[in-house]
Each structure stands twice: as structure tokens, then as C-alpha cells.
Amino acid sequence: MFRDRHHAGKLLAEALRDRIVGSGWVVLGLPRGGVVVAAEVARALGLPLDVIVARKIGAPGNPEYAIGAVDADGVVTLGAYAVADQGYLERAAEAEKAEIARRLTAYRSGRPPLNVADARVVVVDDGLATGLTMISAVEYLKRHGAARIVVAVPVSPPETARLLRARADEVVTLAEPQDFFAVGAFYDDFSQTSDAEVIESLRELAEGGQGA
Prior knowledge:
The protein has about 210 residues and is an alpha/beta fold.
């Protein structure tokens, strides 16, 4: 469906164009791959770009299976089927919070974060699966005073999109396939995004965006 994250971002920008009206909008990308998609959105719409980091908490013995997520404040969002004791969750959250701090420092390269208080925010990822990291990001933005939160992703399972629509002001997707298996299945090229690519995307667009 998408050639790569750049292609997906350009298509997503077109879907957002008529929704992003007025001033005070910013684009935030979830790293790593979501920042590449977000950069194309920010570039096409002439908006500033920043990063928002939430980290998955994996299940005990199965770290790839998300049972929750943690944001930069250390607040944990648990999934409906989270099974783990409190000690495990606390240790996992602390480890991921440290990684969040590392990434924010590295990715922003000394730039201050964009102010999200009273801002209208488009939060972008390269796709959703469980949606837990996106839910964590949305709840973070609510606590920090965002005026409007639009979640924008190329692809999502229908049930995950429904979960996000109950939390964000709007959710924009390009596809919600019933036969969803994995985000990468909808890309010709879903190779891993490097930290260097994230840093370069943010450096190019953090200072106010570049118009289409």
C-alpha cells in the first residue's frame, strides 16, 4: 500500500490538509519511524516538527508483546490484558523512562521542546498495532494542556482506531484493514529508521516547518 514512510507521510499530509486550518498547529512524531512520516506531514503543511516519546512495556518473558506504555513523565498506561506484578511494572517503567530521556536529549540536540500548552497537535506514527504508545502520547498531551489532539497514521486495525477515537479529538487513517497482521505488511520498504535519520528530520523542520 505504501512504498515507504516518506510516501506514507505525503499521502497522510493530503488527507490532513483540509482538517488543519487556522494557526497554532504543531506536528509531533513518535520515534523512530513515526518521525519520518511526521516530517513529510510537517513539510507539506508548513508546520513545526518535534518528537514525542512514549515507550512500550513488554510482557514478562515476552518483551515484544506490549502490555502497557510509559511517557516522559513516567505515567504508565496499561492495556486491557496486562498481566504483571507491580514490581515488574515499576522496574520496566523506570528503565523505559531512562530511555525516553536519552532519546529526547539526543533527538533534540539542545533545542527546547515545542510548547504544546494551548497548541493544536497532530501526533503521527507510521502505523498502529495495539495503540498503547499512541494512547500514552495522547494522555501526556492532555495533561500538558494541548488544545486539540489529532492522531494521524497511515494504517491501523479498526479496533485500535476506535480506542484512539475515544481519547483523541480526531483520528485520521488512510486504511483500517480488517485483516491486519503487522504495520510493516503494508509497506514495500519498512526498514528500521536510524537515530541519525530522526535527528536530521527534526533538525530540518523544528524551526517552523517548510511549506509545500
